[in-house]
Amino acid sequence: MPGRRIFLLWPIIHNALEEMKMPHELPPLPYDYTALEPTIDEKTMHLHHDMHHAAYVKNLNAALDKHPELHKKSAEDLIRDLNAVPEDIRGAVRNNGGGHVNHTMFWNIMKPHGGGDPTGPIADVIKKTFGDFKTFQEKFNAAGVGQFGSGWVWLAGDAKGDVKIVSTPNQDSPLSQSLYPIFGNDVWEHAYYLKYNNRRPEYLQAWWNVVNWEEINKRYQSSLKK
Ligand code: MN3
Question: Is 103 exposed, middle or buried (0-12, 13-18, 19+ CB in 10 A)?
């Protein structure tokens, strides 16, 4: 009876399928590609998510192919301790694992009809650290403008619960510096060039209109528990 045979073989088939599964997957956007218009245009969202983020995931999986012992580690854990990653794939994991983690954060800390003044605990820590929200925004934008070439600008938290603005080149994550990326903006040209061309300051300014403070509060609070 073929049905019974499959039943008996199922644990073997199941294990084989599990082993074939790629350890990392591209998460779908949490909203429609048009949802962040007019701040971020539909075409940029398609290219950014479907091509750029997808490539980081694909290349991360390809690098990890050589080291199945790392398949169970989350992408965050991989880039939190890059020295634990074998040297032959360390650069690929740093770039593509970072790219995967950074973009997964990025989609989630934005939302349609977002923006406005921060609320909750993140508003309090911004006020405590920078005086007021406007001063914080100006410093954050200046750090984004000042990041030469491709990279990110972040509000990052340390183990004591203090926060600071940092920028990183390429896909480097604050996680690799023992900091928690509470939220960040992508200042690679692929994030803004179609709509804003070379006007990065204009993009940085407009971006606050799609910021999701509820999600940022969640990330900030979870960073304090760690
Ligand atoms: Mn990007």
Answer: buried
Q: Could you give all domains of the chain from N- to C-terminal order, each with its CATH number? A: 120-223 (3.55.40.20)
> What's the 49 CA to ligand 1 centre distance in angstroms?
8
pTM for this entry:
0.91
CA 69 to centroid of ligand 1, rounded, Å: 28
Rounded distance from Cα 119 to ligand 1 centre (Å): 27
Confidence of residue 2 (pLDDT cuts 50, 70, 90): low
Residues with CB under 5 A from ligand 1 (ion): 186, 188
Written as six digits, the tokens of 187 are 């200042």
Token digits for 13?
């088939």
Closest CA to 73 of 19, 17, 23, 14: 23
126, 216 in Cβ contact below 8 A?
A: no
Separation of 225 CA from ligand 1 center, angstroms?
28
What tokens does 192 get?
Answer: 């803004």
Contacts of 10 by beta carbon, 8 Å cutoff, 6+ apart: none
- Interval 166-208: pLDDT, tens: 999 999 999 999 999 999 999 999 999 999 999 999 999 999 9
